[in-house]
Amino acid sequence: MNPPNQNNISIPLSPSLEQRLKEVAHMNQKTEQELILEALENHLKQFPIPKNCYDLAIELGVIGIAADLPSDLSTNPSHFEGFGE
């Protein structure tokens, strides 16, 4: 039985694919499940998860503390004196 945070899926296998899976799992001293999960993880690495605009902006360094300015510029009320006048 799988832990509560894991899901099961069923897929049909041809007899030849099932036999090959058993052989390769045996040769690598792994279970069929381990072999399938490993293959799936390796395959999915080819498809990176898309990043949102915020994450890209952080990576580019365009969001954050501006050079030569106080780190509390947007939160310290003393920096607001005279703002908008």
Give a structural overview.
Helix 1 (15-27) crosses helix 2. This protein is an all-alpha fold and 85 residues long. The radius of gyration is 26 Å and the shape is rod-shaped. The protein has three helices and no strands. The N and C termini lie far apart (67 Å). The chain has one domain (15-77).
List descriptors:
mainly alpha, 40% helix, 0% strand
In short:
The protein is an all-alpha fold and 85 residues long.
Distance between the termini: 67 Å
The arrangement of helices and strands along the chain is: HHH
Radius of gyration: 26 Å
- Nearest-integer average pLDDT: 90
Overall number of strands: 0
Largest sheet: none
Strand content: under 5%
Low-confidence runs (pLDDT<50, min 5 residues)?
none
Percentage of residues in helical conformation: 40-55%
Shape: rod-shaped
Number of domains: 1
What topology does this entry show?
Elements: H1 15-27, H2 32-44, H3 53-60
Helix pairs in contact: 1-2
